[in-house]
Structure formats: C-alpha cells, structure tokens
Amino acid sequence: MALQNLLAYKGVLRFLFPVLLLTQSGFAQERQLAFTLTDKNSGQPLMGATLISLDGLLRITSDSSGHVNIPAPVIARGEKLQVTMMGYKKAIIYSRSLTGQKEIRLDQDIKTLQEVVITNNNPIARVMDIQMGSEIITAAEARKLPALFGEVDIVKLLQLKPGVKNAGEGFSGFYVRGGGAGQNLILIDDVPVYNPNHLLGFFSVFNNDAIKDVKLYKAAYPAKYSGRLSSVLDVSTRAGSMDSMMISGGTGVLSSRLSIEAPIQKGHSSFIISGRRTYFDIFTSTLNRAKEKNAAYEKIPAYFFSDLNLRSDWKLNANNIMWATAYWGSDHFSSFTHDVAAKLNWGNRTASLNWKSILPSKVELTSSLFYSGYQYQLSNQSGYNNLQMRSGIQTIGMKLMIGGIKTRSLSWQAGVDGMLHKLDIGDFKSSSDLSGFHVGEKISGNEMGIFLNSEWNKWDWLAINGGMRVSGFYAAGKWNINPEPRVSARFSITENSSVKVSYTRMNQYLHLASLSSASLPVDSWYPSTEKTKPEYADQVSLGWSKAIDHNTFFLSMEGYYKWMNRQIEFRDGANLFGNPKLENDFVFGKGVAYGWETYIEKKSGRTTGWIGYTLSWTTRTFKDINDGQPFKPRYDRRHDLSLVFMHKLNKKLSVSGNWIYGSGAYITIPVGRYVFQNQAGRQVRSITPVYAERNNFQLPAVHRLDLSMVIALKSKKGSSDITISLYNAYSRRNPFYIQFDERNNKDGYITSIQPTLVSLFPLLPGVTYNFKF
Amino acid sequence: MKAFVAVVLLIIMFSCNKVVEVNLPAYASEITLEMYLENGRELRCLISESLPYTDSTINKPLDSALVVFSDGTNSYILQNKAIQDWENGRLYNYFNPYILYPDMEKTYSISITDKHNREVTASTRFLSAVTFIDSVVAKQSVNNSDSFSLGIVFKDPSKTDNYYRLLVAKKLNDFNAGQADILLNDIGFNGQSFSFFSEPDYSRGDSVTVRLYSLQKEYYHYIKSVEDARSSNFSPFVQPSWIKSNVSGGLGIFTAITYDEKEIIVK
C-alpha cells in the first residue's frame, strides 16, 4: 500500500526534487551571520520584526524563533540597518557593531504597545509570505474583543476568521474548512492536546494570560505537522520576564486568574506560572448548606474547572536556549441526591522539555521530549449499584528538527518525530453486592514521521515550498506507512500583490469517536487498526492577496477543495460504553468540502479590525448512513460573515465590537410519528418519532452583535483596567436546536405536539477587572 | 452523563424557548404494526398509520385491513376488533381467538393489506433458549431502613449474543410504582453473571414481580432505536436514531415473547 502511494506520487516527487536541488545550490551562495531579535525586557524572541538596509537592498523578516541572517559582506561594509516592529521603538544599527554579537534587542514602545493588536505580520509581509491559509492571533488581540461572560478565549476569536466555524453559539469547538472537530491538530508548545475544552466546550483549555499567540493553518501545512486532516492550531505560551518580577491577573463573573513571572537569574532565566479557577461550586455549595435541613431539597450539582500553566526558560549562552512547559487542567462535576451519587472528572496534562541550539555551521537544531495525557472518569453509585467508566490516552513523544539558516533565497528544515500512544478505551466496570463485570480495550500504537521541507525564493516574483513527510503508524505488529507531499508556490504580480497555490496531503492515525455533534468529555480517541484504516485528505488551494493603501490594509481571497477519505462515524444504536470492541460499531465513508474565503483587514492606526466572509459547502457519504446518500454535517454553513472592529478613543478608553452572521446549522428533525406501546412496562402509548434524511432541516440564520469597552484605571504602579462586555447586544434569539414538546390534557393523554425553538444566550453583560504590576 | 449535560445546560445557559412554525419535509404515512406472540395467548395486534410529526391527530388506527397470520401450515384472519389487555394496560385493534402454543421449529408470519392496497409483511420465530432469573433478594436501603431495593441476578449464556429486558414492579400495570425497566445486551458481560438493584421503592410486605425477557435481536434493536429516537428529540447532543423495524414495507415490531418471572414478598 505504501509503495503504491509512493508510486502514485511519482509526479509530485519529480517536481519536488528539482526544487530541493535548486535550494541546495542556493544554499552554497554566500556566507551569512545569524542573529536573534529579542525583547529587551523579557528576552523573548520576536517574530516578524523587519530589518532593512537604508539603501533598500536588504530586507529580512525574523522567523518564528526571532532569527535573521545578514550576509557577511553587509556586516563588513558597515551599513546602517533599520529594525522595526509594531509595538517596539525603531532601532538604527551600524552593521559593524554587530560583529561578535548574536542578539539584537528591541525596546518596547509603551506609547504604541497598547495599540498593538496584530503584531508579527504586516500586510506586505503576508503578501510576500508563501504560507497560505493561515491565521495568527495574539493574546493582546483576544483581550481587546468582547467575550461571553467577559471570559477571554483566544480559540473563540479564531471562529471570527474565514473558514473557521463554531460548534454552536458560545462553544469553543471549531470546524475548519469542512473538517470535523476531531480533525484539528491542537498543540500547546508543540505538545498535542486531546480535549481542548472545559465545560462541554463553552471554554477552551487555553488561559489567555499564559498565551503569547496562536497560529492556525487551514491549508499548505508545513511538513513538520501531521496527524490530523483539517487544521493545525499551534498555541505558544509566553516566557516569563527575565528582567523583573511581574504579577498579573483578573477576576470576572465566572472565574479568577493569576499569573506570576520573574527572573530566576536576571537576563538568563525566568519562570511564569498562570492559574485560573471557576467558582460556580462555591455559590452552589453555600446554597446547598443553607438548605440541608430541608429533607425534600434536592441539592444543586457542583461543577468547577481549574487549570495551571507553567513555563521556565533558560538562555544557556548565545547559541543555546532551553525551556520547559507544563499544563494541568481539570473539570469536576458531582451530583448527590438522596440515593444517587454521580461524579464526572476529566482533564488534560502536558509537559515538555525543549532545547534549541545554533550549531557553528549555522544549522539550527531543536529537540524536544514531551508527554500528553487525557482521561475522563465517570462514576455513578445508585443504592447498591456501582458503575465506573473511564477512557483516556497517554502519549510520550520526541521531536528532532534541524533547519538551515534562512538566506535570501533558501530555507530548509528537516526532522523526525515519534510518539508512543497508550489508549484505554471504554473501560466499564459494573458491580453490586451480588456480582460484577469489567470490560474495556487497551491498545498501544506508535506514530512516527520524517520530513524535509524546503523554501526557495531566488527571484522576487516566485517562491516555491516543497515538502515531503513520510508518516507511519505501528499497531498489532504491523506498520502502516504513507507519504504526505506538500507543495506551495507564490507568484508576485506586483510589489504588493501575489497569487498563491498549494497542495497538501494529511493522514490521521488517531480518530475521535463521538456520538454527538458537540464536544463532550466522553468522546474517545481510537487508534488505526487492521479494520480502522488511517483517514487521509487531499486539499488544493488557490489564493490572491494584496497590501492596500500604503501597507494599511491586507486583502486576501482563497478558494479550496478538499477530499476526505475513510471518515468515521458510529452506526445507529452504537454502544459507546461497555463495548469490548468499539470499532465494531464504526462505519466508514468519505467527505468533500469546498469554498471561497474573502478577508480584508486593517492592520494599523487607532481603528483596526477585519471583515471575513466564507462561502462554503461540505458533505459526507456513508454506505450505512442516510441510505448511502450524501448528507450535510451540522456545521455545513453556506454563508459566514464576521465584522470586527477595535478603536482606541483615547489613552484611557478603547472600544471594540464584532457582528457575525451565519447560515443556519443543519439538524435532523422527525418527519413522522406513530404510537408505540410495547408489550408491558411503563412506556405506554408514547410517541415515536420517525426520521427520514439526516440533517434534513436548516435552522434559521444566526446573527449577533457583541460590544466591549476597556477602561484603563489610574495606578501608581503597574496598570489595571476594567473590561465591560455585552454579548448579544440586541438580544437576538439565535437558534440552537428545535425541540418538539408534547402537550397533554388533564388525564395525561397527548393532545398536540408543538415545535419550540431553543436558543441559548440572550443579552449577557460581563465585567472583568484585570491588573498587572 | 445525560444528567450532567442537562444540569449544565440549565445552570449555565439562560436559554430562551420560543414556539415556532416549522415546515416539515413532506411525509407519506406508513402502516405500523405491533404484535407479540405469547405462549397460550390469543392472536392480537395493534395496526395503525404513522402521521406527519406535527399533525393535529395523535393516533390513527388502521381499520378495515386484511390481516392474515400464518404459522407456516395454517392461516388465521384477524378481525378488526378493539381488545383491551387489562393486565398490561394495552390496546389492540385486531384479534383472533386462536390460542398459540409455541413451536420452536416454525416461522410465524403476518401480512397486512389495507384498502389502498398497501401491503406490509413480517416474520419471526420463538427463541429456543430462555435465560432464567437465578435469584431475587430484598435489601434495606442505605439511607432509609423502611424502604427496600430488590437485587436480581441472572447468568448470561456464553457463545451467543443475548438481549434482555428487565422489569421490576409491584404490578406490571402499576405505572406509577417507580418500577425498573432496563434494556440490556450482553456485549459487556457475555457468559458472566449480571446483577442489578432496583430503586428502594418497596416496603415490608410488598409483593413484587420481576420479569426477565429474553429478546430476539430484532426486538432489542427495535426498542433501542425507539428509545434513542425519543431521547434525541430533547437533546441537541444526541445523534437521531432511525427506527430499526422488522416489518417489511412499514414500521413496528412483530416478535415472539419469552420471559422468566419471579415474585417476591419483601420481608
């Protein structure tokens, strides 16, 4: 199979090899000196800073590690170089002064820093960048925009970008270019996160205070990424200050948070710890205690979530840095009635140790070891019956990546990675005083990948990125190996506009088995086996982008077509719990998704924001579902429009808002009914719904306006603000689902059936107090 | 899990409900059949027509249909006649006084033709083996010494897929008695003992009936699909389920009933 796939890609390889050969010749052209651009205060590397020679002949942008490479002759000539980045003071450097240096430090510009919303990429840089189908959002941007209950969630902000749809109003789960929720590779500091949600998906696991930025790749995935079909969400945490101790935090309607960061050794090492916790349970337990003497009182169930992010960075020397990260998150739900005690706990744990080294040959070596685990436990004790359910996944992995220093015409990256997965699936234990049974699956699987990625842009008008990843999965004594070619190109039309094309293939070896359309904690990961083959998808994209009005606006249009194969769903009536072989209840099919995304963004000035519009289609076809006919998944939304604005009124006051419009989601509603009484028992003459096609009904369109205002407060030391937000400002009743209520007469007999539209959130105000000192 | 989802939705969301007009896709009604073959019972069934979901009529019995039951050798016509099952509180609208005694070797079938010449058919057999209740015990509630739970134990036969329905009640037609009604398949406990304790709904001196049905596979999947279809109507998180019927050309169930039953007086 692997050989067949390789032969099938002979054409792609034929294209790829000349690109790689060309890049080899480009690499040998001129000697380069490597520097790292860093924040003077925190020591954090700065991505997207621009370094230009005043004669205009040299123009370089720092990469994700803050690296730039300056040709040795430029250093030797003693030229004036200008370094700029939004939020930082412009720096003029004499190139000779860099001799013997490895680092260029930029000083924050306090006056403009608060206005910085989107850093990193200015419009021309994005136009010239070969990468397409990507979005970057910073934590600063997330803080500016309105949030449900005032709780900032950077993942929900991504849902305002074209091509990204939510799982339902208020949910942080997301669907990218027609893919499923389990087809997004979610990484925190390069470590996979298996369940990115708290509270049924109303909040993501990412604490905005601990985050530096998030990058979302919807297409043209760099070859270092693999394992999911539809997107890569790469979340980077921020490093602690290496200069001074800082404490920040905030308190809101639902949760409070606190971050402490400080240098361990000034200028060389630092740590940051960020935590947050909700407090529903404190209110509900107080109420329960107050009424515990009332025998008829049914206690309100308790729920809370908490999480903790840790990070420590060490600059070993100018060429070596190390950092360690950890995440711990936990959700707890408990319900106690007179006879029944139920508990549901779930959470993720991640940890990583990373080392980046610039070798004397200017080759950058990055290595990391990591762990990721997710588990849920559900227990129910009812009288003498005990039920316990558990599922989880644990992964230990390593990555080794080597990259050539970026020159004017070439950059390359190669690497190898591997993960050992241990899955505990559908562990079900039932016991009483009389007997008991225990069932479940334990499966191990090893995932590996090796890749080479090369970007070549010798001429201004053309840049080509060619990559090949070979991925594999080992389970039950067999390897399943598959090639994953990635090719993209950028053709510059003018100095500020370009056309981009890309083709990518992705394989997915771990599958999210979910019985619902929402993201639930009991969703289980299932590995590829002899029966459950790896999912794979091919995507082609074509785009055009342009910088407008002196680099003030960024305009882009992208079309895509995606073929998804070996898609997995549960058959009707599947047993998720107590099933000794879950895959026996899987059915397999395929899907397609295609669409067009339009995006215009204002990047600078007192007023910033964007408009994003997506026109898209997606369908699924399963032999065993919907009589084999194609059907639309719930998240197939024809039109999706987002308008986002942020405006700084003065030094103390800024306002922001967003308005969204989306075609209604598709749901399945019954078309017919009949009365079924059964042979005996308590279900007598009850209404049985008859369903026809899957997702046969489209809910009304969704639209909503959210507003936010940030008021900076006077503070002798540090800074603080109050953020007031209005979610759903005109209280639109957006549809969530339709429920059919049975109306009974006084004798208990059903007299009519009434469709009722259920919507979740009316106008909801939120207030959050934030501080930093 | 359902409780968790329900409570979270209740507490967290300030949800609003609004009655709306829904234009449902067109639906052509189908003949529905509900017939249970029991040892020593007359032939009786409920035949009705399914309706569009929001139709103002709740139930539409199908009258004047030709209903023919066959045991493979002889055929019996069921007359259109209302029959009340007082023991179980059920209604039937077709009847034949022929008393059925099961023959495990026979395939039983039924055909229904209505006045519009719509025809549905179904067939079934009696299970050759029945699982018996091993024991029923009464235990005092943990929280209240005056109330009792009933513990039921049965041993699942290995080598075969088995499907069960367990009913516990003071009387089988006492619908307000807090009886247990659970549907089981042996996928998780094949060949092992299974035990279950009822809610502590019983007092000293109560006479309680425990009935363990051994279900045919198609009857189990039919009831499961009906339960799933009903529950998906009230939860946005559940994928709707299609009715798995063994009635060809229509909806419903035609099945042979076998069960073991025990009575216990709580002491």
Fold topology:
The complex is a heterodimer of chains A (773) and B (267).
Chain A (H helix, E strand, L loop, with lengths): L1 H7 L1 H18 L4 E8 L10 E4 L5 E3 L5 E5 H6 L2 E5 L6 E4 L8 E4 L3 H4 L9 H6 L5 E5 H6 L9 H5 L5 E3 L7 E3 L7 E5 L2 E2 L4 E2 L4 E2 L6 E7 L13 E7 L8 E6 L3 E11 L3 E10 L1 H11 L11 E16 L2 E17 L3 E19 L5 E19 L2 E20 L5 E22 L4 E24 L2 E14 L2 E17 L2 E12 L1 E4 L10 E4 L7 E14 L4 E18 L15 E17 L4 E16 L16 E10 L4 E10 L3 E2 L4 E5 L9 E5 L6 E2 L3 E12 L5 E9 L7 E10 L5 E10 L4 E9 L1
Parallel strand pairs in A: 1-7, 11-16
Antiparallel strand pairs in A: 1-4, 2-3, 2-5, 5-6, 8-15, 9-10, 11-12, 13-14, 15-16, 17-18, 17-46, 18-19, 19-20, 20-21, 21-22, 22-23, 23-24, 24-25, 25-26, 26-27, 27-28, 28-29, 29-32, 30-31, 32-33, 33-34, 34-35, 35-36, 36-37, 37-42, 38-41, 39-40, 42-43, 43-46, 44-45
Chain B lengths: L1 H11 L3 E4 L11 E7 L3 E9 L1 E2 L7 E2 L4 E5 L4 E11 L4 E11 L7 E6 L5 E6 L8 E8 L7 E8 L7 E7 L10 E6 L7 E5 L9 E9 L1 H16 L18 E6 L2 E7 L2
Parallel strand pairs in B: 2-17
Antiparallel strand pairs in B: 2-3, 3-5, 3-8, 6-7, 6-9, 7-8, 9-10, 11-12, 12-15, 13-14, 13-16, 16-18
Low-confidence parts of chain A lasting 5 or more residues at pLDDT below 50? 1-29, 111-120
In DSSP terms (H or I, runs of 4 or more residues), the helix count of chain B works out at 2
What separation lies between the terminal Cα atoms of chain A? 59 Å
Segments of chain B where pLDDT lies below 50 for 5+ residues? none
Write down the overall mean pLDDT of chain B: 87
Major protein interface: A-B, 93 and 97 residues
Number of strand elements of chain A: 46
The shape of chain A, in one word, is globular
